[in-house]
């Protein structure tokens, strides 16, 4: 560490008591007597004086965030036991430390309350003169440095606990100041100088001696500048320069950290170990397993615990307890070498001076170049240009070279045959040590190093570039920051500022330089230092083409290429047998590399045309093979043609194959695959079934579907024709064949259904199974589809599939007497489930999706319908919570408050999802403020009874038990009453009677005409008269109070009186009976789907059909005939 004076000013006859930097470091404020002066921190120029003080100013400071605001009227004052000499806030501004004349440190909070009291041993005889908090953000605790006039420096935690022991000083300290990041302390006092300490209180050195006491010292923020203020008015600014203290040996780098620690870094494994010396580290040297550290009063020698190359555990071997002055320090296995200007001293580890060499000029560079323990060699460069080699056990230096300019850097190659020198003009000079001949020189070099693993490679750095030179090839350059200090294998060690790093440099460039000159063995040595896989392959290929099989083999082993290793092995075997034709070997190499034409030329040149023919034939390159046919045995021509035909045959080119077989004389093979088979088949008589069958089989194999179909048709083999259509997936032809020959229905529809199922077309597959009469498979497909739809919450699809399942069960019941009862029960159950899922889809969309397309009245009706029809066993996927939640919301909207309250009460009995919890609790509270009744009920069209909105009997009237008929879109109750036929009346007869529409005298109309002149045209008894006149209305009457449902049964006369427009008939297929419904409000237009028999308000149905192009329930297309 060096202190360089930046500027100095003197204020006459004034003591500088305090100074402070502006937080950005640009200005310096100084308390000098009665004046406060502002200086420029960069050059010491005074900016302005600040006036207004009438007495001596002892303390100045810049505000960072303010202690109190100007708005405060007064400042709180607190009494203390002694005079306060110094104070300081913690970094977070929460606590204030006070140093007092009686030797006490008081730590107080922002309110002035004392939290910690530290009593120093010296008491009032050791007043606390300066304190400072460590500003470091890396420390876990707040640390307070305390300096007293008992000549002690101590450190405390915020809790008052002392850190370490007191540090004894040799002077009375007047000021303590931390660097910005807390890494160092500056302290000044009665010794007339400022001193630099570590953050732990270890003295590192002096900063500028003065002529009077140093009363104050401060560090410029975020810099290494220190300003001192003295009793005689002197203000001095010093720049502290921290030099790099380090050492390097191969892959181990040791450097100084925090001035008192040494860090040893393994540059390959990136491991680091810290050695704490607790004193200023002056010099470091490292060699093999030794590490030497020079401290102010001693030198420590460390050694590694083991010989392991990656071991990082050092232990002290020796201590030399003497003070040494030296410029350079070098350590060997058993000695240390001290260099002081022209003198070199060799000391043993026991401090005995064994050798001394005095040079003719100043020593500029020294390096250990290895050797046996106790006999190591040193390479020494002098300022006068002399380069010497010194052995530790030899008193006589050996002069290697004498240059005309000063030596800056030196290194010797691994074999000790070449010497690289960088001179003071930044020129790299490489000499042959034995002949003293200059081999080459390069400009722009500041450091140089030979590769420790390769004799002919060196690297040097300069001007921001790293240069790698192999042998006498051109230099390879790449950008690099810092300068290079070592070269080991493929790693170059680079020092940038204080950081050493190992840079992995691929050795590709020098390797290719050797390859260009066919120097394969040297290229292999370079590759071993570190190149990419592609570089290894290039080396292997080049060596193989250069017929250096040994190098090629080693390179191919590196990249594990077994194919080429087999080739090299076979060539080596052939060499052992006496073959020595290099051109033939090279031809084999070219063939392996895919250079077929070059290989063929070499084969031809060496008289091995048969190998060229064999190569081209194996490659199916028959055109090239023909060039070599004439030169070989005549039989080879036929063999070539046969091989070519075999290739054409396997390549699905039957026509070309047949022609080649004919050319080669293989007539039987040609007949088997002849392209004109269709002509033969057409000429054959249909009675010749065996040849025709063989032709058809060939067509099938050759994928000629049309020819095969024609042949089977000629044979009249319909079974085979159907099989052909099915195998080739020509379904339309298969279906047209089934229409003419229904006996093949199973042979077509079953595979078709399976094919549809495999292609995820399950609905079509179900219909195909149905057509094939495979009802069980059809039902299985539908059941799987239904299950999937429920699991995936596709309730619309689930409803549709359940409806299809019910119709499937109805088909089975119609065809099978044994299963009829079971299937009819399933029909009823599936119809019920279909309607439940169809309805629940709307509720699910309302609860799970942000928008609903339904009106509140529709959702209200849907929820009531679903709850009225839900039995104890709720189907999977249907949530009672969602249904009740939707009903509660819609009831509240529509004024059905009693029903809403009932819904909320029912919800309290169920497990409610968290997303509804808040809404339901709020609704339950708000509904209690509403009246306890519903706005209106639901009227029965048979008995005119007003039914409650939610009916515990389900979807029937509470009075007459008549089932309600709902619209399948809005789920309003339709004005329909179901009636039944009296015994003996068939469905066909009933329809014919209804269609008669017998005309009768409308007395009502006559009465209206009679009363035309009177204003009171309507009388209260009109309805009774109508009831007596309409036979169906009379039939609707029933016995009041009965617990059983009394259906409406009609006779022939009643049927005859009905209008066809007022009657709707569900014409169910057998074995179900038809169902009849009478509209009581003819003006209300009702439409029934002819497929699923669901009833709709006509307007709703038309709108839905326009939206979906089909029935919303059974998905029957609008253009499909009834």
Verbal overview:
By secondary structure, the protein is α+β, with helices and mostly antiparallel strands. Among the domains are: 2-65 and 80-241, Methylamine Dehydrogenase, Chain H, CATH 2.130.10.10; 403-505, Neuraminidase (6 Propeller); 512-613, no CATH class; 956-996 and 1034-1121, no CATH class. It has 32 helices and 55 strands. The strands form 15 sheets. It has a four-stranded antiparallel sheet with strand order 1-20-19-18, with no helix packed on it. Strands 2-3-4-5 form a four-stranded antiparallel sheet, with no helix packed on it. Strand 16 and strand 17 form a beta hairpin. The longest helix has 29 residues, at 820-848.
Number of helices: 32
Unreliable parts: 1001-1028
The structure class reads: alpha+beta
What is the CA-atom radius of gyration, in angstroms?
54 Å
CATH topology of the domain at 2-65 and 80-241: Methylamine Dehydrogenase, Chain H
Strand order of the largest sheet: 1-20-19-18
Principal-axis shape equals flat
The portion of residues forming beta strands comes to 25-35%
CATH homologous superfamily of the domain at 2-65 and 80-241? YVTN repeat-like/Quinoprotein amine dehydrogenase
- Total DSSP E strands: 55
Global mean pLDDT: 81
Give the CA-CA distance, first to last residue: 106 Å
Major sheet characteristics: 4 strands, antiparallel
The level 1 CATH classification of the domain at 2-65 and 80-241 is Mainly Beta
Q: Kindly state the percentage of residues in helix.
A: 25-40%
What is the annotated CATH architecture of the domain at 2-65 and 80-241?
7 Propeller
């Amino acid at each position: 560490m060096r202190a360089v004076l930046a500027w100095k000013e003197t204020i006459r006859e004034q003591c500088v008591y305090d100074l402070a930097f502006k937080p950005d470091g640009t200005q310096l404020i100084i308390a000098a007597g009665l004046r406060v002066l502002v200086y420029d921190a960069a050059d010491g120029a005074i900016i302005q004086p600040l006036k207004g003080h009438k007495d001596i100013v002892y303390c100045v400071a810049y505000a960072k965030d303010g202690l109190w605001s100007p708005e405060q009227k007064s400042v709180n004052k607190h009494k203390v036991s002694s005079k306060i000499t110094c104070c300081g806030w913690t970094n977070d501004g929460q606590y204030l430390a006070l140093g007092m004349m009686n030797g006490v440190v008081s730590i107080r909070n922002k309110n002035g309350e004392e939290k910690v009291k530290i009593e120093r041993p010296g008491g009032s005889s050791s007043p606390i003169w300066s304190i400072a908090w460590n500003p470091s953000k890396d420390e876990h605790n707040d640390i307070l440095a305390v300096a007293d006039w008992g000549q002690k420096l101590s450190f405390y935690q915020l809790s008052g606990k002392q850190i370490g022991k007191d540090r004894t000083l040799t002077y009375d300290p007047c000021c303590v100041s931390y660097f910005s990041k807390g890494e160092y302390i500056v302290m000044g006092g009665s010794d007339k100088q400022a001193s630099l300490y570590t953050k732990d209180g270890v003295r590192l050195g002096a900063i500028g001696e003065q002529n009077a006491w140093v009363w104050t010292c401060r560090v410029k923020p975020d810099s290494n500048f220190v300003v001192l203020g003295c009793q005689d008015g002197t203000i001095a600014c010093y720049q502290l320069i921290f030099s790099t203290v380090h050492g390097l040996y191969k892959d181990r780098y040791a450097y100084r950290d925090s001035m008192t620690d040494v860090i040893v870094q393994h540059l390959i494994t990136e491991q680091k170990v810290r050695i704490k010396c607790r004193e200023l580290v002056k010099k470091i040297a490292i060699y093999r397993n030794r590490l030497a550290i020079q401290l102010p009063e001693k030198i420590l020698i460390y050694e590694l615990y083991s010989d392991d190359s990656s071991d990082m555990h050092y232990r002290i071997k020796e201590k030399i307890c003497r003070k040494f002055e030296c410029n350079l320090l070098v350590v060997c296995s058993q000695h240390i070498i001290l260099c002081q200007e022209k003198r070199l001293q060799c000391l043993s580890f026991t401090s005995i001076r064994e050798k001394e060499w005095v040079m003719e000029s100043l020593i500029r560079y020294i390096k250990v170049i290895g050797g046996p323990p106790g006999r190591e060699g040193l390479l020494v460069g002098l300022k006068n240009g002399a380069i010497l080699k010194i052995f530790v056990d030899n008193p006589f230096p050996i002069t290697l070279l004498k240059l005309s300019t000063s030596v800056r850097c030196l290194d010797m190659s691994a074999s000790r045959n070449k010497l690289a020198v960088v001179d003071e003009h930044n020129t790299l000079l490489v000499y042959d040590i034995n002949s003293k001949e200059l081999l080459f020189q390069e400009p722009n070099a500041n450091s140089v190093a030979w590769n420790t693993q390769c004799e002919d490679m060196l690297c040097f750095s300069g001007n921001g570039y790293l240069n790698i030179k192999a042998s006498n090839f051109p230099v390879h350059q790449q950008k690099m920051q810092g300068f290079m200090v070592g070269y080991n294998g493929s790693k170059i060690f680079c020092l940038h500022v204080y950081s050493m790093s190992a840079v992995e440099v691929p050795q590709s460039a020098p390797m290719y330089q050797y390859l260009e000159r066919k120097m394969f063995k040297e290229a292999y040595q370079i590759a071993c230092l570190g190149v990419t896989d592609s570089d290894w392959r290039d080396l292997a290929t080049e060596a193989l083409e250069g017929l250096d099989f040994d190098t090629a083999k080693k390179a191919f082993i590196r990249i594990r290429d077994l194919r080429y290793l087999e080739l090299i092995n076979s060539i080596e075997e052939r060499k052992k047998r006496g073959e020595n034709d290099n051109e033939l070997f090279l031809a084999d190499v070219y063939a392996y590399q895919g250079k077929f034409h070059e290989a063929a030329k070499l084969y031809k040149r060496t008289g091995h045309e048969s190998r060229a023919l064999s190569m081209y034939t194996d490659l199916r390159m028959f055109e090239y093979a023909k060039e070599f046919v004439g030169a070989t045995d005549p039989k080879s021509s036929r063999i070539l043609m046969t091989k070519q035909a075999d290739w054409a045959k396997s390549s699905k080119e039957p026509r070309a194959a047949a022609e080649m077989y004919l050319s080669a004389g293989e007539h039987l093979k040609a007949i088997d695959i002849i392209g004109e088979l269709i002509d033969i088949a057409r000429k054959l008589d249909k009675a010749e079934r065996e040849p025709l069958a063989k032709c058809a089989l060939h067509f099938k194999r050759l994928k000629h579907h049309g020819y095969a179909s024609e042949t089977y048709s000629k044979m009249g083999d319909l079974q085979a024709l159907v099989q052909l259509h099915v195998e080739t997936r020509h379904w339309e032809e298969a279906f047209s064949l089934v229409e003419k020959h229904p006996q093949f229905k199973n042979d077509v529809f079953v595979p078709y259904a399976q094919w549809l199922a495999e292609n995820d077309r399950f609905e079509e597959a179900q219909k195909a199974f149905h057509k094939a009469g495979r009802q069980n498979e059809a039902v299985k497909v539908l059941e799987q589809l239904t299950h999937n739809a429920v699991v995936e919450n596709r309730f619309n699809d689930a409803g549709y599939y359940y409806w299809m399942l019910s119709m499937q069960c109805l088909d089975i019941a119609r065809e099978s007497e044994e299963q009829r009862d079971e299937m009819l029960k399933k029909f009823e159950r599936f119809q019920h489930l279909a309607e439940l899922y169809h309805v629940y889809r709307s509720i699910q969309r309302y609860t799970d999706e942000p928008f609903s397309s339904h009106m509140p009245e529709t959702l209200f009706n849907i929820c009531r319908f679903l709850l009225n029809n839900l039995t104890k066993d709720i189907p999977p996927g249907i949530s009672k919570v969602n249904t009740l939640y939707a009903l509660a919301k819609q009831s509240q909207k529509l004024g059905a408050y009693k029903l809403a309250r009932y819904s909320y009460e029912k919800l309290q009995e169920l497990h409610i999802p968290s997303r509804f919890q808040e809404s339901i609790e709020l609704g339950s509270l708000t509904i209690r403020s509403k009246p306890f009744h519903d706005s209106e009920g639901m009227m029965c069209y048979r008995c005119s009874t007003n039914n409650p909105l939610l009916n515990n009997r389900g979807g029937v009237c509470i009075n007459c038990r008549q089932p309600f008929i709902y619209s399948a879109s809005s789920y309003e109750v339709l004005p329909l009453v179901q009636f039944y036929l009296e015994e003996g009346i068939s469905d066909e007869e009933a329809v014919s009677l209804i269609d008669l529409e017998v005309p009768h005298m409308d007395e009502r109309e006559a009465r209206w005409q009679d009363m035309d002149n009177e204003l009171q045209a309507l009388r209260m008894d009109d309805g009774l008269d109508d009831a007596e006149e309409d036979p169906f209305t009379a039939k609707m009457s029933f016995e009041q109070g009965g617990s059983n449902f009394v259906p409406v049964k009609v006779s022939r006369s009643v049927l005859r009186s009905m209008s066809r427009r007022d009657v709707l008939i569900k014409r169910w297929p057998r074995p179900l009976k038809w169902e009849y419904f009478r509209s009581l409000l003819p003006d209300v237009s009702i439409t029934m789907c002819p497929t699923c028999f669901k009833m709709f308000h006509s307007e709703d149905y038309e709108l839905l059909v326009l939206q979906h192009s089909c029935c919303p329930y059974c998905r029957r297309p609008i253009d499909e005939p009834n």
